[in-house]
Amino acid sequence: MKRYVTGIKPTGNAHIGNYFGAIKPAIEFSEQEGVESFYFMADYHALTTIKSGEELREHTYEIACTWLACGLNPDKVVMYRQSDIPEVFELFTIINNVTPKGLMNRAHAYKAIVEKNAEQGINIDDGVNMGLYSYPVLMAADIFMVDADYVPVGLDQKQHIEIARDIATYFNNRYGNVLKTPDEYIDKQFAVLEGLDGRKMSKSYNNTIGLFLPENQLKKTINRIVTDSSLPTDPKPLDCTVNKLYKLFATAEEQEAFDAKLTAGIGWGDAKKELFEVANRYISPMRAKYDYYMSHRDEVDKILEDGAKKARVYAREVIQKVRKAIGVK
Ligand code: TRP
Q: Which residues are CB-contacts of 296 (< 8 A; sequence separation ≥ 6)?
């Protein structure tokens, strides 16, 4: 049995790029044999970006409901809130003492801010608080807490896992073999989707299609996909954004038929209408589940609390070993 852990930062609503690029593959991964996985809402990590209590609470529910709606099965995986595991924060305090400051200076997110500040000629640490600076240490604590073998992450998180590995090694060199050194698990096949303007779908480009938009808004958003000014009778390229998105939602026969229509010539309006039909059909059952969970938050709380109980069994074991090793018990 290999143990996987991954944290999900609650920072706003998921879009279909998140779904196909991260959520769906992660859920499929969790359903394999021989895999024991832990998914937690990294609410304390979100404090670096979300500065309103109401917003953080809302986003945490949104992200938990999203994963449940997309099919994450809380009977098969351990799903919890980071903030429900106090051992994480104790471990964070402890491992800060084996973490060289220089290691944090090299972390990408911090370095990027420092470089930007330097360019603008202002104090290099402007806008940097200790939460941001020690973000990778908290992440390491999350990982050690459940004795994880692997951490499935996107490429952007690779350095954080390397840092966690370094921290485990520093700790173990001082105190003996206590912490497991985790490996990252990066699936390069994770899809990158095109957004409304043909660039990579990303919140920072403001070109996303929200995963659980109400029907009428989904339709409106699909209508905003940027297309050329060709006539309805002109053939459309098969690698257009509309077709790339269509393929994600349609059956093999539908894909073939749609290719034929595009090649023969179809108006963009009609093509988008067909995209909406298949997308809405695919998303509707998940959207219904999402809406259900969002209006039954007590059920979500129960799932997350049960998950925290399970996770804390591991967390207590790890923290006891750590306390013993460092000499406080
Ligand atoms: N930093 C991760 C992100 O931005 C979230 C995260 C927090 C995480 N703790 C983690 C991921 C532990 C993997 C393991 O997406």
A: none
Residue 29: how many CB atoms within 10 A of its CB?
16
Gap from CA of 123 to ligand 1 centroid (Å): 28
Q: Which amino acid is at 73?
A: N
Tokens read off for 275:
């995209």
Q: How many CA atoms lie within 13 A of 125 on its CB side?
A: 7
Long-range contacts from 54-62, C-beta under 8 angstroms, 24+ separation: 56/10, 59/10, 59/11, 59/12, 60/10, 61/294, 61/297, 61/300, 62/10, 62/12, 62/13, 62/14, 62/294
3-state secondary structure of 154: coil
Atom 10 of ligand 1: nearest residue by CA position: 7
Q: Where in the chain is the domain with CATH 3.40.50.620?
A: 2-192+296-326
Distance 280 CA to ligand 1 centre (A): 30
The pair of structure tokens assigned to 64 is: 């938990």
Contact status, residue 98 vs residue 170, Cβ threshold 8 Å: yes
Nearest CA to ligand 1 atom 6: 7
Q: What is the pTM of this model?
A: 0.93
User: What six digits make up the tokens of 279?
Assistant: 């997308």
CB atoms within 10 A of CB 92: 20
Whole-angstrom distance, CA of residue 116 vs CA of residue 85: 35
Asked: is 203-290 a CATH 3.40.50.720 domain? The reply is no
Does domain 2-192+296-326 fall under CATH 2.170.270.10? My reply is no
> How far lies 318's CA from each of 14, 91, 172, 325, in Å?
33, 9, 13, 11
Does 18 contact ligand 1 (Cβ within 6 A)? Answer: no
Distance from the CA of 139 to the center of ligand 1, in angstroms? 6
User: Could you report the per-residue pLDDT of 204-250, keeping only the tens digit for each?
Assistant: 899 999 999 999 999 999 999 999 999 999 999 999 999 999 999 99
Domain with CATH 1.10.240.10 in the chain: 203-290
**pLDDT, tens only, 156-188:** 889 999 999 999 999 999 999 999 999 888 766
